[in-house]
Amino acid sequence: MGGSSDADKLVAKADKLTKLSLTRWSADWKSATVLYEQAANAFRVAKDYEKAKEAFEKASKGQEMISSPWDAAKHMESAAALAKDLGKWSEVADFYRRASELYVECGRSQPASDALAKGARALEEAAPDEAIQLYADACSILEEDGREQMAFDLYRAGASVYIRVENFGVIEKGSGLAFEEVWLAPSWSEAQFLEAFYVVNISQWPSPLIGYSDAAAFLLRLGLAADKCNATNSQCKAYLSAIIVYLYAHDFKQAEKCYNDCSQIDAFLNSDQGRFASRLLTAYSEGDVEEIKHLAQSSTISHLDNTIIKLARKLPTGDVSALKTDAVKEEEEEPLDENDLT
Asked: Where in the cell is it found (predicted)?
């Protein structure tokens, strides 16, 4: 108790230094911040985590007031870690976001992104919708700084959370990732296509659309980031992963469309992953369950991320015989061309 009691006195003394009075016309934030820091550490040693959290918040504000955003960010991260231990999930998100903003003030995109990623990992189970938002924002920071390669794992993590949420039904409606597909002009160059391909608006989340489509959107965004880094292998794996997600959701039409769009990129079309996707979709269109199961066990699948491997191993998830029936009907309904003499 002595540690906590002494720390309380430090906070009280620091609070006085930040308040104006008849005898103090300006706040002494420099001295107060030192006291807040001492108190925060003392509270933490005494395992009084609530007061330690509050003291780190005050220490962070103090560092801001003396124009030291880096140290302010560090203290805010400490407060966020304590909020996690206390199970105060909304504070976890708020504190890590504030830490990220302070790192941005320092011009440091990597720690700014890292802070959001820490918050996302802490919230994956307790608040998956918030975790996905944090992962998306963490990716945005790195993209804006031209550091897409550092965001690869974050996109994978975001997609994994979406898939887990869809499987177990935890996420709240109205917090989905808003994304739009871009209609492609035939005259566009490959570079223009890549810039427009599956544009994901990860700063606005008004859409109620959630689940596998959003997981695929994360993976497609990863593919675009990988292309900018000339990471062809990661790019092709991301595109194949997105197709598998659609197939797991038993959305053959969207999987086929995704494949057709991705195949406009030569790197994917000529890759092992592209050829594998073609074989897999052919097996679906033919209603060949055994071939689908066989392909799901292939080495191409084994080299994908664990979350995607688990989905692929469960294919097919629905009745694929209907796909074969639909294909036959389309052929039968195709009008006869009287001018075609072949």
From this structure: Membrane
pTM: 0.82
Taking only the tens place, the pLDDT of each residue in 238-296 is 999 999 999 999 999 999 999 999 999 999 999 999 999 999 999 999 999 999 999 99
103-127 b/e (C-beta count within 10 Å ≥ 16 → b): bbeeebbebbbbbbbbbbbbbbeeb
| Residues 286, 19: Cα–Cα separation, whole Å | 76
Helices (H), 202-320: 212-228, 232-248, 252-262, 266-269, 272-285, 289-296, 299-302, 306-312
Instruction: Let me know if the fold of 7-18+27-146 is the same as that of 148-169+210-333.
Output: yes
Report the interhelical angle of 272-285 vs 321-333 (nearest 10°): 80
| Distance, CA of 244 to chain centre | 18
The crossing angle, in degrees rounded to 10, of helices 69-85 and 49-65 is 160
CA 73, CA 110: separation in Å to the nearest integer? 13
Determine the CATH number of domain 7-18+27-146. 1.25.40.10
Provide the residue ranges of all domains of the chain, joining segments of one domain with +.
7-18+27-146, 148-169+210-333
Instruction: Please state, in angstroms and as integers, the Cα–Cα distance from residue 163 to each residue in 234, 277, 309, following that order.
Output: 19, 20, 12
How far is residue 61's CA from residue 114's CA, in Å, rounded to a whole number?
A: 21
Write the single-letter amino acid at 112.
Answer: A
Which of 313, 334, 307 is CA-nearest to residue 153? 307
Tell the residue number behind the tokens 């199970």, with chain if given.
87
Superfamily of domain 148-169+210-333: Tetratricopeptide repeat domain (1.25.40.10)
